[in-house]
Structure prediction request, 663 residues.
Amino acid sequence: MADPFRVLTSRTVVLPQADIDTDQIIPARFLTTTTREGLGHHAFHDWRAAGSTVLDADPAEHRILVAGRNFGCGSSREHAPWALYDFGFRAVIAPSIADIFRANALETGLLPVAVEEAVFDRLAASPGAEATLDLEACELRFDGETTRFSIDPFARRRLLDGADTLSWLLRRLPEIEAFERRRAA
Amino acid sequence: MRQSSPNGPSRNGPLPRTLFDKVWDAHLVEAEAPDRPAVLYIDLHLVHEVTSPQAFAAVNERQLKVRRPDRTVATLDHSTPTSAPDAFFSEAARTQVETLESNCADHGVTLHGWNSANRGVVHVMGPELGLTQPGMTVVCGDSHTATHGAFGALAFGIGTSEVGHVLATQCLLQRRPRTLRVTVDGRLPWGASAKDLALAIVAHLGVGGGAGSVIEYAGEAIEALDMEGRMTVCNMSIEAGARAGMIAPDAVTVDWLRGRPQAPQGAAFHRAAEAWLALKSDDGAVFDREMRLDASSVTPMATWGVTPDAAAPVAARVPLAASARDERALEYMGLESGAPMAGTPVDVVFIGSCTNGRLGDLRAAAQVLRGRKVKPGLRMLVVPGSEQVRRDAEAEGLDAIFLAAGAEWRLPGCSMCIAMNGDLVGPGQRAVSTSNRNFEGRQGPGARTMLASPATAAASAVEGALADPRPYLEAVHG
Prediction:
């Protein structure tokens, strides 16, 4: 599991396109791996190969990815958030984030934040600007303005603690066994 | 938003529930609360080589065992070669396959590997074996798991961490999704297939239109589909961003399942079938959203853009770009607004995938190709969805029709749909593909994909250009 996520202040990288699918984030031919590490250099591989320079910024100073609506649509590959995390990103802000990608991002420790279009427009207008994501307060602070964002309370707690889901589920084993007995009866 | 409905009766009797509600409620180990998601029990976990190695590693690191190997079934499909079993595209692909083989051996999980007569694309194999049954919860580390919803199962794709959760506990943490009923009135006209309907539905909903929702497909046109057609429609639910797609089981479902090796047998089958037939949305059940569509206006469809919702009738013209995004898509595809869709030059035709790699799909393609030739210079790949489909097709002589036409007849696998096994569309080449995704580079770097039905793909192979299949089908009837 990733490090705990509390407050992140960093610069943004802006990919304003809507519907960026997981095949763009990491093409399928890089999925023939048996580990989750080291996928960062495949992030947006084909975009970079085609000459896109938007991801050339120093990853250590650009940890917030701002993207258009329906970010992460398509395949269920968790390699997509793994690649973004390994690249250096710690959060994705978009008007909407595809369901499976959001779940995978939370498991990876990459904070997915959905914001209103107007907030996205302001962020997208200033690539490289500094923004703060405060998970304690559920606040996005950018350009002198503070916006509340909502996140599932369970997921928030997990990110704040840097705790993994599997440990929590394993503690439910007595309930799971009881369910199985009930159904078999 | 509607409350999760308790099982208990209200003052006016039990609350009417949707098909989804019934399957969801029956699998709640613990209902959700504001501070935690529901614990949802999973009946069937399907596993493949690409999204499972890190999940098994997580289980092994904790020195756990797969909790219910009897509810876990694995296959090899994504990174496997389709030319010969040992013709791996890379050492990494070989290692991935070997890793699944050893993980399954270590944990006592059934693997339909190279020597199995049942190996196949995971969403073709599961239903074929009768593993998928109405009312079940089914998951797989693959977004096209929605396919299994055709049987009235709640089936959805998960990421690798969640694959680990299910391996270790047989459960997932889930928030209750919303419900969306898509009612398709009327009948599909002659010459239009389930794939054309699926593309029409996705075009109508938009690529994110189903987000957060489980779709129930209903209506006369859905009821009239055979099981393969229903699987094609449910398969593409994710292309509208939906979590899952479901269709209430009926006599068609029961007939399809009868005699399948993993389905109940004899008297147990009759008891099960009775329960399956009762599994449907109650009259008066409320959906969060409703959408209606008329099947009678659906004709052969193909995509023109780089998202699956960018679909239009083959007989129509390429739509006018409505946005800068459309313009970029048309530029990538090398298409011009206002030009006829039909006649667009095509370099590659792919028939296969979990969307359209079943026997009926191959029959539809063969019907068009019988006695005809693939246009010289065009590459056509036909990849059966499973070993069973391959045997059945060969028994009918479909392979001979494809080979005589000049197409390649391959071993089962995902192949050119995900293009990670070396089966690629070249840069700048245009493909008509029966798969499910036309994203940029999906079928290879720089590849241009037009999604279509098997009949449309076959007709396009003959003409070397996107073609309406109806004249070919008429010739057969005539």
